[in-house]
């Protein structure tokens, strides 16, 4: 028995109890409707859905909207944004949330079986988009990075889609390779190659932060899927070694590490550690209860990217330690709830749904942890936004679509427990 199987052992009885409730001895797997094959799924009835998950998501979105406005209201004073009105980023973020909400409602109607069927094709399409974004005159470059494809109303970031596509593809891969999961060549090596291709494309942008999140999602799903422990830790060691080599052979990344280790050094404080030092100043000014909403000084052109990567620092300065702690607890609860839904799906013999959902949990928890760690000086500076809160159309869109998929998995779990079918 692998270590991951041992972790799932306490939930093994849930499948049998579910089967007993359905009148099916032994928790026999229920047939899944072929939604693509001609029988359309009925619209989801929002009864018995996870209200806690929805409320926490809504509160984080609302807080993010308020803080994006507060962090960006003074940006028109900067000559670079002189053509913008003070409410530019507020109205754009509100539009992103509206569009994303509609996309989430549509996503909620799609059965998990559809995502399982199309996961490899979605992953292939994502790889194509990661290539397209690198093509001159197509991909949009900002601050030396080429990560966006202009779509008129918004700039789409393929790396955000890659996080969801990897969660689906890795879950689908593990389901298909479940019989050979103890074999390195058949189980781990093909997944490692896929991850390597994604890594090369993301590092060409460059976007090392997104690659770290995607790598965590892929390895996490391999572990939860029951891959041999020795092979898993070998894969982790190889990946960590690759990150170390990238830092050693890159002057830019090496200087970031030195700046992180000694941010107040005069050689770094006005250079590589500029964002970190001003983020720490913001938290220091905020104290326990903050300076008050709108009263941040650091957002007045001292703290770069205050409405995106360093939004938590503005929250800390204006609303204090209490608000920062609330945000941390909200993400902890959200991640834990997503994992619980995933474990329930696995216990009901819905392995793809369970692994995919837990992969989304790793994505949200891992990215939030990295962003918070960067803001608080616990981790080196990386260009990762805070899910659901930071400004950005692609991030909000894919965050809400991913959470809609989690809600769909939870709804199907509940339907099975009530004796229905997915």
From TrEMBL:
Pathway: Cell wall biogenesis; peptidoglycan biosynthesis. Its main location: membrane. The chain crosses the membrane at residues 52-73, 94-115, 121-139, 184-204, 210-227, 232-250, 310-335, 347-370, 390-411. It is a multi-pass membrane protein. Its EC number is 2.4.99.28. It is an enzyme of class 2 (transferase). It is found in: Cell inner membrane; Cell membrane. Keywords: Cell cycle, Cell division, Cell inner membrane, Cell membrane, Cell shape, Cell wall biogenesis/degradation, Glycosyltransferase, Membrane, Peptidoglycan synthesis, Transferase, Transmembrane, Transmembrane helix. It catalyses: [GlcNAc-(1->4)-Mur2Ac(oyl-L-Ala-gamma-D-Glu-L-Lys-D-Ala-D-Ala)](n)-di-trans,octa-cis-undecaprenyl diphosphate + beta-D-GlcNAc-(1->4)-Mur2Ac(oyl-L-Ala-gamma-D-Glu-L-Lys-D-Ala-D-Ala)-di-trans,octa-cis-undecaprenyl diphosphate = [GlcNAc-(1->4)-Mur2Ac(oyl-L-Ala-gamma-D-Glu-L-Lys-D-Ala-D-Ala)](n+1)-di-trans,octa-cis-undecaprenyl diphosphate + di-trans,octa-cis-undecaprenyl diphosphate + H(+). The keyword Coiled coil does not apply. Pfam families: FTSW_RODA_SPOVE. Belongs to the SEDS family. FtsW subfamily. Peptidoglycan polymerase that is essential for cell division. This is Probable peptidoglycan glycosyltransferase FtsW. It comes from Ideonella azotifigens. The gene is ftsW.
